[in-house]
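[Structure tokenization] protein backbone as discrete codes
[Encoding] learned vocabulary of local backbone shapes
[Protein] chain in single-letter code, fold in tokens
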Amino acid sequence: MRYASDRAWLVARARWVLAGLGSAILVRATVPPFDLAPLALFAWVPLLLLAGRAPLRMVLGAALLQGVVLNLSAQSWVGSGLEGAASASPGAAFGAWILLAVLQGLRTPAVLLVVHWAAVYRCPVWVAFPLVQATAEVLLPGLFPWTLALQVHVVPQWLQAASLGGLAAVTFWLGIVNGLVTCAFLCRRRRLASIFVGAATAVVALVSAFGHAVLLRVDDRETASAPGRILVGHFGTLVDEQRREPVPVLRRQTLASLKQHDAVDLAIWPETVVQNPTPMRRVPQLARDYLLRDRRGGTSAPVLGVPLLFGLAVEDAGRLFNSAVLVREPGIVLGRYDKQALVPLGESRTIVAGLPDLGSLAPTAGDFSRGSGAATLQVGSHRVAVSICYEDILPELVRRSVLAGDPELLVNLTSDAWFRGTDAVDFHLALAKLRSVEHRKYLVRSTRDGASAVIDSGGRVLRQVDAASTEAFVATIRWLPGSTIYARYGTAWLPGAAIVAVLVALARSRRGRRTAGRQRRRSHLS
């Protein structure tokens, strides 16, 4: 008997360990650099099989294991980034990586806790899981936001619901499919299992058909919209580690590209191409004598004849800002945007506002101030919404700028120098391109040591430059005014969906109690 009980104990523990690890492996395979999107249709099934059936501690243990292992694997570049860019000690960088993985991994057991309770009260897992997961992604996005939509970023047809309800809408239908597949596994009757499989297949087919139809309309809208020509500067230091100053290289390549293309509306260079902090009063002179032309060449030096948007650190009123500045010859400043979402322990010495200063963990962490101005800049007769680096992975921040300025183009200036040569570059691009789907606008990214890209309003990458190269290229975009349902209403649909789910759970629970009561009465009478 003792041997049998010990064996049962080991089998139970092995079951939840395999469930957690299995789900972590499946989810990891769907995100960069692997991008095996079809696995997203059942990647969460190993965990969901436990909800409502296994003991709660087993469910939470498996969920925590999945969350921590997944974050440790997918964000292994966090430690190397802090060590290389912020001069953190190896021990501090390793500790920060572990801490971040645990904190972000806690969201998974929180989701499974609610799904487990819902299952106990007879709410179907295909109703509870998508709703709880979508809500958790909105309320607990994490430092580097995780979303089920990231798992299918390489399939544009599966992303199109984002313009209606944000990434939560994509998470919702993926959650339904995972829940239906889970129910199919749990069914003892083959006929009922086939019904659940058929329902999951139908959801995928409907979403695919909807996405295909939407992309056809997107193409028609783009064709009917005004075209624009944007020059994108990309700088990489992987080839030549000794190349420290990007401006001369970018200027030379920009001039060469402008000779080959007429009527360019805007040139864009990456974040902090000017590496030394510059007082705002000196920016016009900097633009006139250094950025738009090389003053060492005298008055005959060639001049950039188009507006230039570039990144630099600006000193203004005793504070330091990570800024994007728009200039034109002969050094006229047309606009400026200051970054609002600062990277913890990189641009800010705190992780969360209000917490103690943790700059001792990262001695060279910046001390930037948060910007508060509008993100929309005027380029000729067109409006451009600007984000800097990390900001393009924050849906709500971009949504606020779109609502405030009604831009016709999204532009992002990035430096991924912290994470060059790691999966973080692909991770960043995959999250960033989701903004174009949410707002039905082109997104142009100009990066250092990252992935520069031009993405259309359907989330399709039209042009991409690898991190290691250095070049300037001209791309045709479409100026697309207007806003989407998501931009206007955000995720306001989630509370309504929650009410429906609660009503379903209550109705099923009441029906279950009535059925159990009738069975007891029949048993008593017999």
